[in-house]
Amino acid sequence: MKSDIEIAQEAELRPIRDIAARAGVPEEELDYYGKYKAKIGLGVMKRPAADGKLILVTAITPTPAGEGKTTTTIGLADGLSRLGKKVVVALREPSLGPVFGIKGGAAGGGYAQVVPMEDINLHFTGDFHAIGAANNLLAAMIDNHIFQGNELGIDPAKITWKRCVDMNDRQLRYIEDGLGGPKSGVPRKDGYDITVASEVMAIFCLSTSISDLKERLSRIVVGYTYEGKPVTAGDLKAAGAMCALLKDALKPNLVQTLEGTPALVHGGPFANIAHGCNSVIATKTALKLGDYVVTEAGFGGDLGAEKFLDIKCRFAGLKPAACVVVATVRALKMHGGLAKTELAHEDLGALERGLPNLLRHVSNMKNVFGLPTVVAVNRFPADTDAEIARIIEKCRALGVNVALSTVWAEGGKGGEALAREVVRLCGEKNDFRYCYDAALPLKAKIDAIATKVYGGKGAEYTPEAEEELARLEKLGFGGLPVCMAKTQYSFSDDAAKLGAPEDFTITVRSVKISAGAGFVVALTGNIMTMPGLPKVPAAEKIDVDENGKITGLF
Q1: 299 catalytic, yes or no?
Q2: What are the helix and strand counts (H, E) for the chain?
Q3: String of b and e for 29-60 (b: at least 16 CB within 10 Å)?
Q4: Buried b (16+ CB within 10 A) or exposed e, 431-459
Q5: What is the DSSP string of 102-152?
Q6: Mean local confidence (pLDDT), 398-412
Q7: Is-catalytic flag, 92?
Q8: Which run of H or of E encompasses 23?
Q9: Can you say how many angstroms the Cα of residue 447 is from the centroid of all Cα atoms in its chain?
Q10: Phi, psi at residue 551, to the nearest 5°?
């Protein structure tokens, strides 16, 4: 069996100029990054043409068995193309942290990939480097301001802004810097986030123009004065220089699927610690180019999809036409208690125990958010007809159809059945709504997510979180949406609670404001904004030969 990278390297890519022409992007709107990558000018997004139909792909709660959400997203786009539809796929850029860590690449898999996959997974067009540089410029200007006399009266003990690096590096979570004497800065406790958790990444993905980006950057709260007054990037006069670093990165990246479907891959906040969606600019550009736009949100429906709908759609005025929930028999049996080594045989009992996880995600999309929904089951050779029939039966009881997907092995051909159902759903009644009213108090919004989406009893708060919530309400941030930072492995904040747990509360241990992005982050459980590498990192298997050919990359 060929690996993903072998399949990608054997593919005959079309010149990106041809892909742009297929999508209707004129030559003057392209900035070329070699033969197979280009950036698209922001003017395309402002075309007067009608928008296409937006399809959101989400998934069940992830397991080590894998679900194949990105692969399904790409295969669905290719399937729609095979049906004669003009389609564009819109994805997030991969972070180097997971690529070198445990998750691997994020360009799809098998015969449903975006290419050139090596470039997309490694550096790409440099967007993340620009985001990290802008983040760290602000950090440097904060400490320099204090060193040069601290005219704003910033309390070094109340600085909330962290430096970042796009790598899993637990050693940097908590550090002390400014050491080495008076000429080396002011000593203080500090730390790093991974770049995809930076507020600059969130701002980048929610901005709609250079001016909007600059305004959002200026609103970033970096800390507080000795009197408790917020200090912003605008106060430090940092927004202009930060925006200058990001001006080229803000243009969405155009690549292609293995079957030549245009793909916009742009931005990449994590969904467990950020809002988990590609850029608004990429999505809106895609909607001007395609009659159908297929996009995904990170991790399960309780994280990426909830934030896509409650944050991104709210800010950008987007309305999905349909939703796809991706599942595998294997993953559902893991939710039913089987170990990864026990998945190759039929076990209807384990499947029955795991199915509530899928059904809760489906119910959320259909009943909480009001979206026409289909379940896509990535079929594996070991899946039995009886197991598939059980999934179809349970989903049908919720009024939702199931489409079998074999896109990993067959590309777009294996996504045609799903594509036909998606086209049908796009003509169905759509009652899209948010999970909560943004005007509610912050606690009420958190409780709404915990009860309506997670299926729990509500939330409880540490004294630190209570204090910060009260302060944010007093400062006028209470009307912002909430971005939940939570484990991706459970509906609850306890990664060990698989399936569809009930009768639980989530614990909000701290809260922080992302004023530039426009939301309040609530951190639950033991979620970290800087991941660590596993015992055997994927980096150990990655290599490159004398001719520049990369191996071991997924």
Answers
A1: yes
A2: 19, 25
A3: bbeebeebbbbbbbebbeeeeebbbbbbbbbb
A4: eeebbbeeeeebbebbbbbbbbbbbbeeb
A5: SS---SEETTEEEESHHHHHTTTTSHHHHHHHHHHHHHHHHHHHHHTT-TT
A6: 96
A7: yes
A8: helix 16-23
A9: 22
A10: -130, 160
Compute the average pLDDT of residues 98-125: 90
179 three-class SS:
coil
Strands 292-296 and 53-59: parallel
Catalytic residue chosen out of the listed positions 8, 134, 238, 271: 271
Please confirm, yes or no, whether 504 is among the known catalytic residues.
no
3 state SS of 322:
strand
| Least-confidence region, from 10-19, 101-110, 164-173, 434-443 | 101-110
For residue range 432-480, list pLDDT tens digits in order.
Answer: 999 999 999 999 999 999 999 999 999 999 999 999 999 999 999 999 9
Mean pLDDT, residues 49-59 taken together: 95
| 319 is an active site residue | no
Catalytic-labelled residue, pool 63, 71, 257, 285: 71
For residue 511, CA distances in Å to 352, 452, 521 come to: 37, 21, 6
Given 315, 380, 495, 551, the catalytic residue? 380
Amino acid at 207: S
Query: Has 173 been annotated as catalytic?
Result: no
pLDDT, position 539: 92
> What is the C-alpha radius of gyration for the chain, rounded to an integer number of angstroms?
23
* pTM exceeds 0.85 for this model: yes
Lowest-pLDDT range, 61-70, 99-108, 194-203?
Answer: 99-108
Residue at token pair 């605008």? 234
Single out the catalytic residue among 14, 103, 173, 413: 103
* Cis peptide preceding 252, ω within 30 of 0: no
The pLDDT score that the predictor gives to residue 258 is 97
